[in-house]
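note to self: dont lose this again. the chain is below, predicted strucutre after it. 63 aa total, dont forget to put it in the shared folder this time
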Amino acid sequence: MVFISDDNQKTLPVSLSKFVGPYNTNYSQMFAAIVIAIIPSIVVYVMFANSIVDGLTQGAVKG
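---
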C-alpha cells in the first residue's frame, strides 16, 4: 500500500481495502468487486477441470 502510488498498479487486496473506512464499510460494493474478481478463476477452473484433477491424481500416486 505504501510503495505503489498508482491506482492501476495496485493488487486486488489493496484495491478492496478502499471499500473499508474507519467508521463504515460498503459491503455491497465490496462483495460485488469480490465476485467480479473471482469469476475469471472459476471460468479457468471449469475449462481445465479434467486436466487439474488428472494432474492432482498423478501427483498423488507413489511409484
